Amino acid sequence: MIYYKTEAEIALMRESALLVSKTLAHIAGLLKPGITTLSLDKVIGEFIRDHQAEPTFLNYKGYPFNSCISVNDVVVHGFPDKNELQEGDIISVDIGTYKNGFHGDHAYTFAIGNPGEDVMKLIRVTKESLYKGIEKAIAGNRIGDIAYAIQEHTEKKHGYGVVRELVGHGLGKMLHEDPQVPNYGRRGTGQVLREGLVLAIEPMINMGKKDVYTEEDGWTVRTVDHKPSVHFEHDVCVRKGKADILSDYSIIEAAEKNNPNLFTKA
Ligand code: MF3
Ligand code: CO
């Protein structure tokens, strides 16, 4: 069942999405070697509640934290923990907010210090692929057009591994709505996109092979070859002619550039 949002609902969804962006920007200002991801998770929960919202992920299907924080070879759904971040780590921070009846859900990958040129390239290419997918999120296109654009840029062009087991999704009153949005597929296939469809588009791209496994905790997804993986996610409303990005990376990128502990050049 696909829910197309009204303009009033889209306005509320933009608020929820922007609160995720603001939370990620706040976290971007705090990242440094020596900080634990558990302390970041605590700040994330407080920041969201201070803005009259709830952290979506907490207790979602039993998920035990406010956020998913995935370091290096963890692809997604990493548990915040007491390990200290190290120079050269990459860290995907994925946050959900529930406000005014709608969810925001997006993610950003940061580099703590310099992880090396090849990893910085993986970060750059994954972010580029997200925007290439978003360009296709216009009325009349199909889900497969988004999927193909992401796979083309990452797997075909750069030889990276596109994770198959996890996909993007519709977003709204529920965190996961139809349709699924894979990061691989064929052009001209799948659900036709109509104005008012809100999608969480989220490439999960591995430096090495595409294969992943889930740890004993039932959540943490890791690359089989233990090479790094990068995750970016935006909340996007399908429109005629041009996709409407409800989330906002510009404030996250500004905070990232202002933090000397973070590496941004690719
Ligand atoms: N952004 C992820 C998703 O879209 C995170 C959800 S997992 C959760 O599926 F359990 F933490 F909520
Ligand atoms: Co998501």
Automatic annotation (TrEMBL):
Substrate binds at residues 77, 176. HAMAP family: MetAP_1. GO terms for molecular function: initiator methionyl aminopeptidase activity; metal ion binding; metalloaminopeptidase activity. Monomer. It catalyses: Release of N-terminal amino acids, preferentially methionine, from peptides and arylamides. Binds 2 divalent metal cations per subunit. Has a high-affinity and a low affinity metal-binding site. The true nature of the physiological cofactor is under debate. The enzyme is active with cobalt, zinc, manganese or divalent iron ions. Most likely, methionine aminopeptidases function as mononuclear Fe(2+)-metalloproteases under physiological conditions, and the catalytically relevant metal-binding site has been assigned to the histidine-containing high-affinity site. Keywords: Aminopeptidase, Hydrolase, Metal-binding, Protease. A divalent metal cation 2 binds at residues 105, 169, 202, 233. NCBIfam families: met_pdase_I (TIGR00500). Its cofactor is Co(2+); Zn(2+); Mn(2+); Fe(2+). This is Methionine aminopeptidase. Coiled coil: none annotated. Removes the N-terminal methionine from nascent proteins. The N-terminal methionine is often cleaved when the second residue in the primary sequence is small and uncharged (Met-Ala-, Cys, Gly, Pro, Ser, Thr, or Val). Requires deformylation of the N(alpha)-formylated initiator methionine before it can be hydrolyzed. Belongs to the peptidase M24A family. Methionine aminopeptidase type 1 subfamily. A divalent metal cation 1 binds at residues 94, 105, 233. The gene is map.
